Amino acid sequence: MSKLSFKELLDAGVHFGHLKRKWNPAMSPYIFEEKKGIHIIDLNKTLVHLEHANAAMKQIAKSGKKILFVATKKQAKDIVAERIKNVNMPFVTERWSGGMLTNFQTTRKSIRKMTSIDKMKSDGTWDTLNKREKLFKTRQREKLEKTFGSIADMTRQPAAIFIVDILKEHIALAEARRLNIPTFALVDTNSNPKLVDFPIPANDDASKSITIIIDEICKSIQEGLEERKNLKANPEAAETKTTEAKVDSVAPVKEETVETKTTTEETVVEKKEAPKAKAVKAKAPAKDPKTEKPAAKKPAVKKAAAKKPAAKKATTTKAVKEEK
Questions:
Q1: CATH topology of domain 6-100+157-233
Q2: Helix and strand element counts for the chain (H, E)
Q3: pTM assigned to the model
């Protein structure tokens, strides 16, 4: 995976933040210093967070899932549309219609309307319509194409969402958080990074900083897609990789089990030796005194002698009653 250098980010103006009076205190760990009333972002932390985001994006693309890109700002609109088309991922650049994720069934209905109009043109039913109906359908098709044209291939909810400027796209962020969808975003000094799962502290107003970061993310997605193709083409190589990973994961466990076996054997030997010593100590005093056996029998004889008169008394009382 190609890595950006510190100088490239510096030349693109990724370090420029907002004015001091517009800052969000949650961004304090990502701010390097203040210069002429403007906060400057720490680019070392942007590089670290960008690597984490690239690794996560690569895994999602490798699994074959979709990532939705949202950027309706003038600076980012055209950049996102051009770059993301090459990667075959859905994107929203015109307007985020409320409920696009939370009420996904209605968005699918509107996409079906658009496809039905296209089928009418191909089937020949388009020629049977009036001039007024044709004009109405064409206007409806253009409106749907503007808002849902880039999401036509998205048949289910996306596995992740990438946002440029959280403050402008707060509705998209709220919907993604409600559905527990992982969020990636460019976070400037005036926004809260705690709302995003993978924040990338960077300047989200300059077109150069947006392009350099989105190009890097597109490269990681492309790498993930290529790896997926290679795995499909060579499933045997994938199986060997998985077996190697399993062997590597099992090897240290076997060493630990051998050590545990030796320790358990030692503890068992110690436990066996300990009761033997106790038994020897208990048997030694029992062998010497021979007079204890009759001493234990004497009280039994006394008890029997004591019981006899009780029986005699019972017989005498019965005899007296019979005489009466």
A1: Rossmann fold (3.40.50)
A2: 9, 8
A3: 0.69
